[in-house]
Every structure is written in structure tokens, then in C-alpha cells.
Amino acid sequence: MSDPIRLIVSDIDGTLLRQDKTLSDGVISAVGRARTAGIAVSLISARPPSGMLWIAKRLELTGVIGAFNGGTIVRPDGTVVSADQLDPECAARALALLEHPAVTPWLFSGGLWYAQATDDVYVPREQRAASIEPIIKDDFAALLAHPDKIVGVSGDHAFLARLDGEIAAALGQFATVGRSQPYYLDITAPQANKGDGVAALAAAIGVPLANVAVLGDERNDLPMFARAGLSIAMGQGPDAVRSAADQVTLSNEEDGAAQAIDNIILMEASR
Q1: What would the pLDDT profile of 207-259 be if each residue is shown by its tens digit?
Q2: What distance in Å separates the CA atoms of residue 100 and residue 104, rounded to the nearest whole number?
Q3: pLDDT tens figures, 87-125
Q4: Distance (Å, whole) CA 89 – CA 221
Q5: CA distances from 103 to 100, 122, 201, 255, 261 (A)
Q6: What's this model's pTM, rounded to 2 decimal places?
Q7: What is the distance between the alpha carbons of residues 154 and 84, in angstroms, rounded to a whole number?
Q8: How far apart are CA 244 and CA 224, in angstroms?
């Protein structure tokens, strides 16, 4: 590692959190050791701000964090610093492209989550992750003035993977399209991707990207892997994610984020 790490930016789901969405004492302690060593810590996630603030509080973070894949920069008290949102016409087209019996659309806008039903198996999972309740709307057409994120939800992972490529090609430079989970296809503003997001966080905190370490587990983490000075993939991540990282740690169930902080970042810093 040629440049000393001054900032750690971590993904949340599948990285900091275990599969049951809990934050372990081991991860909390490791983050505390990083902060004691003078290394700033931040978060970046596809989650809305509401689903990130409790984690920032538990970790005693004081700097900005990145919601909606970094498209929305917020302070730990929830104050929005900046927000890149989808163009309304692009959002309408994205919803049209998601129209399929196997796909359920969600819309996030203005701190609210809109869904078309509550009987979807993924709704309880998102309620816990986002820390908000869905507002049921049959039609999203009147909600497209300032959309933060549109999500296509499907249990057919293979179909969603194909749809990922098709929608990305159709929307082109007007949106960022990618799966944050095998069952979630996120559509956000062009700058709302983790590559631009980690750059925005680093700039706000005053740390060059060469001095940033990032932790992640999914395909939407790849853009920040490409920008940061050090990238660390979780052990349970897909082959493409692990092969793109500079280092691979243990799985999230094994507190891999804590292992990465202690045995990679802090160990290197002590040399």
C-alpha cells in the first residue's frame, strides 16, 4: 500500500451488517479503533438516508455519508448536503421499462418510499433496511418531479440480470443502472453511483482518493473499487467483485469488515 489510508468508506448490507441486518460489537469496536488511529470513517449505500442514520449513530460517525449509492450526501443528523436526482422523463421511461409481471417497482422520493402493494416478500426486508414504511400508490406518474431512486424488485434473479443490461443500454448516460442485490435493480441519477459517490465523500472530508479504502460486497460497489486507493471485497461476494478488489476479507457473517480494518488497514498503518 503506497499511500496511507486516511478514510474508510464502507458499504452497509452484506459488508458492515450481517445477514440478519445486525451490526456486531466486533465491527463497532473495529471502527472505533480506526477512528482512534486518526482514520475517518464514512458509509455509502443504496439505502435511503433513513436506513443509514442509526448505523452512523452506533458507529459515532461525525462526517458526511452517502445514501442512494452516493447520490445523496447527508450529515449524521439527517441534513441533506446535496442530492442528484433522476430526470422526470428518464424516471418515467425507467418505470415503463420495468413493466413486467415478474417485476415490482418501487420509488423513493423526498424521504418517502412508494410501493404498489405490501404483500411482496421483499417489503418486510426493505422496511427493516430503510427504517420507513411504504406508501401504497397504484400509479407513480404524479411522483416523478424529484425521484431519488427507482427499484425493480424480482425473485427471478436471472431475469433481473438480463433486465439490468437492457435498461442500462436503453437509458444510457441519463441514469446509473445496477443491482445492489440479486433481487434489486436500482436506477438512479448518472452521478448517483458509488464511484462518484466515494469521490464526493472524500472531497467533503478533505482526503484524496489515493488515501481512501473502500469495503463492499456487490456489483454496485465496483465503481468505488475502481476509484479508491485500496479496495477490499467481502469473502462471500460474487467472483467478479472479489477479483476486482485489491484484497479480500472474511464474509460479513464472520465480521469481515472488522478483520479488514484490523488486519489490513490498521496493520499497514502501523508499519
Answers
A1: 999 999 999 999 999 999 999 999 999 999 999 999 999 999 999 999 999 99
A2: 8
A3: 999 999 999 999 999 999 999 999 999 999 888 899 999
A4: 27
A5: 5, 12, 33, 33, 38
A6: 0.94
A7: 25
A8: 11
